[in-house]
Fold this protein.
Amino acid sequence: MTIDVLVEVNVGSQNQIFTYAVNHQLRDKIKKGIRVTVPFGSRKLEGFVININDNNIDVDYELKEIINVVDENPVLNTELLELGQYMSELYLSPLIHCYQTMLPVALKAKKKTKINIKIEKYISLNKDKEEINEYISNNKSMLQNNILLQIIQLERVRKKDVDNQNVLRTLLNKGLLKEEEEEVYRLQSNDISNKDYHKLTDDQAKVVNSFFSGSKGVYLLHGVTGSGKTEVYMNIIDRVLHEGKNAIVLVPEIALTAQLVTRFQNHFGNEVAILHSRLSDGEKYDEWRKIEREEVSIVIGARSAVFAPLSNIGVIIIDEEHETTYKQENSPRYHALDIAIYRAKKHDAKVMLGSATPSLESYARAKKGYYGLLELKNRINGKDLPEVFVVDMQSSIQKGYRLLSLELINKIKERLERKEQVMILLNRRGYSNFLTCPNCGYTYKCPHCDITMTYHKTSDTLRCHYCGYADKRRIECPECHAKGLKDFGIGTERIEEEIKSLFTGVRIIRMDLDTTTKKGAHNKIIKDFENHKYDILLGTQMIAKGLDFDRVTLVGVINADMSLNIPDFRSSERTFQLLSQVAGRSGRKDTEGEVLLQTFDNDHYVIEKVKNHDYIGFYNKEMQVRRKLFYPPYCFIAMIRILSKDYEYGFDISKKIGAYLRKQLPNNIVLGPTMANVFKVNNIYRFVCLIKYRDKEEIYQSLNEINKHYDNNHKLKLEVDINPMRM
Ligand SMILES: [Zn+2]
Ligand SMILES: [Zn+2]
């Protein structure tokens, strides 16, 4: 018997599969999808068994034998093994990356990732109750008797919950009690589920019925903010569970969607497993095992939860389907939506995509009839969507209001008086964007990246948001030594300071990357704001998604048009989505809400469509732009990134790649090389070539050729990104 083992060694884009012999003692233990330890040069590596050959293959060298078997049962089942192959071809990624990305750390093929199973010790009676009672009646030790009585009553207690461990030891030694070990999960779920919830509105019921009765594989639920998409999801899952099937629910980022997760846990109790990046390795391992052992029927999680080894899947739901977090930026550069559709087909399941602001691609597919289109046009509270006001900051600054306009200040004041809550969005953290010398124009840039440094007042440092480099703030210009460097641009820290100075005693909490590094910090901020410990929640895009606060009646956005200037063909779409999402946080319960956008570019169509809550209008306008410039959804994009520490060399190779692609692909549009938007990160220069294509068969061969050609080139790194989410 020989086996093919896939190992992770850094040899570029090719699949690293090696054949090994198996000695007699280990033969019975070999299964496809388990991990084995193999000799590799002078090293030992773990790898996945991906093929078993019963006959010895003929080679003119002696096959090495595997060293050991790591798993009793496969960590990759047949479905995941096949899925990896599919991903590897679709995204031109090494197969090993595909498998590693599917698995929690504890199950990846890596050395030294042993994660232990958590064991809990329990104490129970080791003799009949009568015998114990007799012992108690003849025993003078109150301490002993108390413990015995406690255990008679409860039958079983955790060892660590027993007050007096010394006395406990005596009782164990006497053989009156016994100790048992049991495997426990680190994350404890709710054992009580509360199946009754609000009755669906007619609109919601219609959506659920169409979803089940329709013939499409994928449905797009376009529902305005506050229209009750979560109830629809829960109802669909109830029905799927009732049919004996299972469900996967994907959310953009679990820390930011804590409220939705809580609702699912309250409703479905211990049927739910949770998978996301903020769990510890041990917690992830435990959740994975709950799923494998079929102890749960619903998996909720971020992107990678799409790989949950659930059997018999009935539905895969992707909430906020337009979010870019569903795309992985590292190899394999997969999109969870592709994987969901692939898995759903295998399971004969359906996919539901939900959003108030669907991606242009998804909405176009729905309009063309590839996806079914379902709509929720009204808010569940029966109220209108919040009224949106636009303030021109050009004239506000002339009136002397540079950061917060007089209009916004007055509206905040009203809310504070009425004991209502306010959310303020500014999608930039820190205090100010950059420091410049008014004398010579010198601007502080990160020495390792092509990016200006952001000033953080709390720590009095300049920081690079790309590589994390930090430097003390200077008073003097390093070029001309003039004093009085000026700061420009505003961040959340600055607005926090401004609000505190305008409204004395105001209770404001800031939520951005800087205030949420600790585990659980997000949840605490959200809970505290929910419980009205604060009047104002100020934050970056983190506060825009999925949150539901009853008392919020005003949402203010500072620099609402800022992201329109990002050089990316999706910048209008992203801005529309962000502004619509955050506007949707206002007036979700009994009181109608208002939204105020501070902009410099009030006439931009994105601002106008947000003001009118006009997704369809935005879609039509933006589709015209995309058609004219020939961008998705009118084509697909493949991006080739060339990374090198050597500028000249990187640029030279990029030009060669561009020329090669133009020659090979005369029917497609090849752009570049150009410099990436952020041209240098961590001292590595980045060049980009783009292919706009309609038929992937045509371009994949050329991309594979390039990949192969530069595999062993140590002076540069090549990244192929199919349908990149960032330009
Ligand atoms: Zn200067
Ligand atoms: Zn940097």
The longest strand covers residues 669-681. The first helix runs from residue 24 to 27. Residues 446, 448-449, 464, 466-467, 469 surround zinc ion (ligand 2) (CB under 6 Å). Residues 195 and 267 are 5 Å apart (CA to CA).
